[in-house]
Write a structure and sequence with these properties.
Helices cover about 70% and strands about 0% of the residues. The chain contains two helices and no strands. It is mainly alpha-helical. The protein has a domain of about 35 residues.
Length: about 80
């Protein structure tokens, strides 16, 4: 009996996951006409250049700071060993 319940539970979970996957593959409905367009019928994209550049600069600065701290700690540890 326990084996049967375990088998039914696994089957139920498997079927549920398959049905969930089918729902997630559906496309969203199309936007109403004229929504997000620039007048020529082409949708307007979101500009990502400015934000992306800022994130890259901030990441490089953070990495530089971490590298500086690691070298400083290594230098201090070497001085203590000498």
């Amino acid at each position: 009996m326990k084996r049967l319940l375990k088998s039914l539970f696994i089957t139920f979970v498997f079927v549920s996951l398959i049905m969930l996957a089918q729902v997630t593959f559906a496309d969203p409905p199309a936007p109403p006409p004229g929504h997000g367009s620039s007048g020529d019928g082409q949708p307007v994209g979101a500009p990502i250049d400015g934000g992306l550049s800022i994130l890259l600069v901030m990441g490089a600065a953070y990495g530089g700071k971490k590298l500086y701290q690691a070298r400083k700690e290594k230098k201090e540890a070497d001085e203590l060993m000498s």
